[in-house]
Amino acid sequence: MALTMATNIGALNAAAAAASTTRSMETSMERLSSGKRINSASDDVSGVGVSSRMTSEIRGSNQSIRNALDAQALVHTADGAHKEIDNILQRMREVAVQAANDTNNDQDRSNLQAEMDAMVSEVDRIASNTTWAGANLMQADAGTSFSFMVGAAPDITSNEITVDISSMTTSGLKLNSGADGIDGVVAAEAIAAVGVQAAYTLESSDVSLGNNTGTLAGSNLQDGNVSITVNDVVINAAVLASNTDVQNAQAINDALGAYGVTATPIQDTVVNGAAAHVEGDGIELAFGEVAEAAAIEAVAAVEARDAVDPNKSLLSVEATTAGGTDAADNARKGIVLIDAAISAVSSQRSKLGAVSNRLGHTVNNLSNVSATVTSARGRIEDADYAMETTNLAKNQILQRASVAMLSQANVSKGNILGLLRS
């Protein structure tokens, strides 16, 4: 090989090795100081994307855990208020049972009524002042719905838990009270729940045709109601002389269809070999059997109503007539109302408890998901200290060796000076 001085190949190779070793040593130092195997995208091109995706899932899961815990706190806040309302209702029922006893005189019942009115007011106060982050939990007449995000993915169907909280005001519990009865109407009414209804089939004799005399023929039709009576409650369907037979039949079906009544326009004309209806022929009624299970559904909205004096509280344990003979009866009607309210509160508390338990399971699952994904991410981006310290020691030795060889390569060219001196 030629002896040259302009190009010192040995020195160049040693310098390149020293530079490469220095870069490897700096990488090891960076990983050891940060604890991360991936400190830039160049460290692991595919690993960066995987790690970022896992980070999104981990942080989303951790936030979802906090969401679920906040949701549990909201539910527990509502449940606490429901529990206190239940306590009040139990005392109200106790007062009503006491007032139903004729050992009480008018003054006794007046005192009991004062306590009853105070408890009614407290129910409304609790319902209107139970809030979470400024949102009322149990006052809205239509109820309040809350939705909780309990998953990292945007899929609403699987990552959302909802809870509907019904109104717990005296209005929502049908315990309205006041000087003018329910909403100031002419007659306040106590509403008793309907019991189990057996199967039944209505007949034509059970139907009142209002202003119409025995027929719903179009030529004779007058404005009025087609009415039936179920559980002593009258259900009306309005018919109008100005409506078509089809419109009146639809009105009857809408109002009375759930009770086994079917209205159809009369078909007594043949067109192209088939029965047809001509406007003005009228309407005919048919009656089908309503099975026991269906009957319960059908009459669920039918309420037996007992009138209470409009100038007394709906939950009245006082007399509403001059003779004072109806005080005990009013108290017994109040018991019916309070029992229904207690049942509504208990049902709502059961739902809240179920949602709270569900949220607890959600937190447990999310915690497991977060821990598992965090472990998987760690295997991708965390530095292996055993390996990196070994690499660092190796690179430090190689760096010293490459520097020593660079020095030797530079000195080796000094032999050329000997040739020049000779």
List its salient traits.
single chain, about 425 residues, alpha+beta, 9 helices, about 15% strand
Question: Could you characterize what this model shows?
Answer:
This protein is α+β, with helices and mostly antiparallel strands and 422 residues long. The chain has nine helices and 13 strands. The strands form six sheets. Strands 6-7-8 form a three-stranded antiparallel sheet, covered by helices on one side. Strands 1-2 form a two-stranded antiparallel ribbon. Helix 1 packs antiparallel against helix 8 and helix 2 packs antiparallel against helix 7. About 9% of the residues have low confidence.
Strand order of the largest sheet: 6-7-8
Largest sheet geometry: 3 strands, antiparallel
Instruction: Indicate the radius of gyration in whole angstroms.
Output: 42 Å
In what range is the share of β-strand residues?
Answer: 5-15%
Give the fraction of residues assigned to helices. Answer: 40-55%
The 3D shape can be described as elongated
